[in-house]
Write a structure and sequence with these properties.
InterPro entries: Glyco_trans_2-like, Nucleotide-diphossugar_trans. Pfam families: Glycos_transf_2. It is a single chain. By secondary structure, the protein is an alpha/beta fold. The chain is built from twelve helices and nine strands. It folds into two domains: 198 residues, Spore Coat Polysaccharide Biosynthesis Protein SpsA, Chain A (Alpha-Beta Complex); 106 residues, no CATH class. 45% of the residues lie in helices and 16% in strands. Strands 1, 2, 3, 4, 5, 6, 7, 8 and 9 form a nine-stranded mixed beta sheet that branches. The protein is globular and about 65 Å long.
């Protein structure tokens, strides 16, 4: 039986990690390597991991100094021996037949990556229409096109062949690591599948390793992922470079809009955003923008005060409604 390595970054989740571990232990597919990476937890999460490892030889616990989600996942990848790899966040849990079902699909349809859906969105509500069992199969070209347009983003919603992971690693010290990484995994694949079946139970935990405050540095990390994606499209002469340019402009403008609405953090990151617009703006930049962002982009460098006032008024209106 092929070995599946399940990588679980762990940070301050003592109330949730046991349920996560047990949902993996109890899988109907049992040939698993469960890698728990304790990323410097300050609570009892690391001890809980050790307790489970003491009676299940499939569990390997790695304790490291806090380095963030990317560092924890990368450590797990380096330690993994499996033919297949999957990521589970330690405050979430999974359905019991996930790996049996996904491995069967990978083999039956000769896939390198299979994506499944989740039972909860970030608001905690059940996602409607995500469990009808519909299966889509994508060629390398179609899958990469979708990935470059913000599909296949979450690392945790997939089972990967080891070859799809390859030598791609998550960017250490940055937030929005999935945006910077997921399209590269898809680029390593020849065939990718997506099944509308819910196996993953997403739980919002503000203290976990996967949550982030949307500060100035985080917003810049968000923008960087789109710049790297555009650069990849240009380097590989992909036919949707213009779309990637427009998505980058959307990310930059959303960053600037947030800053104008409620200035926070180090302004140097927002100055970098302005420089990025100056570097990449062209006629294609407007392609995928809504009318508001098209207006903001057109006025950039001409009458920035319009963007500032518009962002501030929008923010104040939301505050009144809430």
């Amino acid at each position: 039986m092929e070995l599946i390595s399940v990588i679980v970054p762990v940070y301050n989740v003592e109330s949730y990690v046991a349920e996560c571990i047990e949902s993996i232990q109890n899988q109907t597919y049992m040939n698993l390597e469960i890698i728990l990476v304790d990323d410097g937890s300050k609570d009892t999460s690391g001890d809980i991991c050790d307790q489970y490892a003491a009676y299940d030889e499939r569990i390997k616990v790695i304790h490291q100094e806090n380095g963030g989600l990317s560092a924890a996942r990368n450590m797990g990848i380096e330690a993994a021996n499996g033919d297949y790899i999957s990521f589970v966040d330690s405050d979430d849990y999974i359905g019991l037949t996930l790996f049996e079902d996904m491995l069967q699909l990978l083999k039956e349809y000769d896939l390198d990556i299979i994506e499944f859906t989740a039972f909860r969105d970030k608001s905690g509500d059940i996602i409607e229409g995500c469990n009808d069992g519909h299966l889509d199969i994508y060629s390398k070209e179609d899958a990469l096109r979708l990935a470059m347009h913000d599909c296949f983003v979450a690392a945790w919603s997939k089972l990967y062949k080891r070859s799809a992971i390859g030598d791609v690693r998550f960017p250490v010290g940055r937030k929005f690591e999935d945006t910077a990484t997921s399209y590269l995994y898809v680029a390593n694949a020849n065939r990718v599948g997506h099944i509308n079946r819910c196996y993953y139970y997403y739980r919002l935990n503000p203290n976990s390793i996967t949550q982030t405050s949307f500060d100035a540095k985080s917003r810049w990390d968000f923008v960087l992922g789109y710049e790297e994606r555009l650069q990849y499209a240009m380097d590989h002469q992909l036919p949707y470079v213009d779309d990637c340019n427009s998505l980058l402009m959307k990310a930059v403008l959303s960053c600037l809009t947030a800053y104008y609405a409620k200035p926070m953090g180090n302004q140097v990151y927002y100055d970098k955003c302005k420089k990025m617009i100056e570097t990449y703006r062209n006629e294609a930049s407007y392609k995928l923008l809504n009318s508001k962002y098209k207006l903001f982009l057109w006025f950039f460098g001409r009458a920035d005060w319009i963007h500032k006032i518009g962002a501030r008024l929008s923010y104040l209106a939301k505050q009144v409604r809430s």
